[in-house]
Design brief:
Elements: E1 37-41, E2 62-65, E3 69-73, E4 80-81, H1 89-92, E5 100-103, E6 113-117, E7 123-125, E8 128-129, E9 135-138, E10 143-146, E11 152-158, H2 169-172, E12 175-184, E13 187-194, E14 200-207, H3 208-212, H4 222-234, E15 243-248, E16 252-258, H5 265-272, H6 277-296, E17 309-311, E18 320-322, H7 328-331, H8 333-340, H9 349-354, H10 363-378, H11 392-398, E19 400-404, H12 405-408, H13 413-422, H14 433-437, H15 445-456, H16 474-489, H17 517-520, E20 521-525
Parallel strand pairs: 3-4
Antiparallel strand pairs: 1-2, 1-11, 3-5, 5-6, 6-9, 7-8, 7-10, 10-11, 12-13, 13-14, 14-16, 15-16, 17-18, 19-20
InterPro entries: FHA_dom, Kinase-like_dom_sf, Prot_kinase_dom, Ser/Thr_kinase_AS, SMAD_FHA_dom_sf
Keywords: ATP-binding, Nucleotide-binding
Organism: Euphydryas editha
Length: about 525
Amino acid sequence: MGDDLIQDTENTQTQTQNSQVEWSQTNTPSFIPNIWGRLYSTKVSLSGKYCWKNIESHKTEYYDLIQPEFSLGRALTCTFPMTKEIIKENIIKNVSKQQFIIKRDLDDSLNPAIITDLSHNGTFINGIRIGKGNSRVLDDNDVISVTHALVKIFLFKDLLKNEQDKVPKEISQKYYISRVLGQGACGIVKLVYNKTTCSKHAMKVIKKSRLTNGQINHLNDPAKIMNEINIMTALRHPCIISTEEVFDSLEAVYIVLELMQGGELFDRISKLGRLPERLTKLLFRQMVLAVKYLHSQGITHRDLKPENVLLESKDEETLVKITDFGLSKFVGEDSFMKTMCGTPLYLAPEVLRANGLNSYGPEVDVWSLGVILFVCLVGYLPFSSDYKELSLRDQILSGKYRFSHSHWRTISLDAKLLMKKMLTVRVDRRITLEQILNHTWMQDPDVIVRTERLLSGVPLGKEYYLTESSSNSDEENNNNKIAILKLMATGKRALSDSFNSCEPIPKKLRVENHPNIDDTSSTNSCGSHD
């Protein structure tokens, strides 16, 4: 467009008087407004010759965007009404009363501007038609055209965009980089918007320099990276976070994931103190099914914890999704073990004994699921460095977990027995995923039906909810369940990118939240349980 159109964008707060144009208020405000963007007219450039009148007689002008909404069209009610005094008449006659509207949610300064095409003859961004009723993200230096790709009217400058977000061009062309969602041992997670669909995603950024320590690993092997990318993007299960795409650069690996809106399991537990046993059963069944699917695809997670279990919605009964699987393939085994074992609250004994060597099997995920089950049911950690009798490492290696009778007294015997079978030190005696699903505690018909409802995505009304207090007879309940299963068989959810989550900041449950544990607890060992 030319440097003359954008030369003063840095001085946005001191030059607002220059932006008072045809539609502006006549009185100059006494305060300095918060300007979030600018629309530079194309009057002084060749591209403006199809649109503006008297090109040579006009100096450079820009229009400050202050309000959360800006509209353009023939209607006088628009923020910028198209008039014959400034726009060529052959252009105006093809412009709709409302040509397009630009909106920005100013509650979060890093939310992008969204442009929506309201016209019949078309609004174009960088020469590409948006389409009536469609929206797209408006990014810095985007050119807006009306009625035809050649009729360029504005150049958009995003004054709130974070200049520190430097990503490869192939990513910035497709995604708008927004705020940081969280940061973990394996990288930083950012909120990103697909520019074309306006859909939100989470993008994990794994810096190579920080993890390789100058040594060659999978991150520097393009063939192995592509192999892992193909595996991750091919995974399709309702309880597994969908990997949209992966970008590899010299400095980092960028993994674009679906975004979950319900937060993480850790926060749900922290908010409630602990989960009701029936709700735990519903969520836990989904976790087991997800891990079982990963194992069937030859993937061992190895870093299962409540921070890596995400929830689709804020509803009590919600779909669960597992994330951060297969990261070791990108960061390298040594680096992965060093970062993962910083606080090994959920790691199996054989992982600690391996000392960074991959000499253990998928059974490690069963142990981690057992710790998660423990935390869901009673709200505190079975192993912690806060327990002074043994070191954290020795607690795990010996399978001696903290058992508080006051916390466990309301939990069913079947749940306790399942937990013990999962937290068994000897791998050959540890329960398997298949056995977990067939365990007495998991054989709850009501929970099985509810789980299948969530997996299928079939919306069912309250009349289908089967609870312990239901007055229906057993025969009526069974008939209802059969009807539900038949309905779900005909309406399976398409496992596409329609799911939406939030990538979490790793935290740990603190024993201080349960001050009475030490007074009423005894130490039990799972190592002797089959």
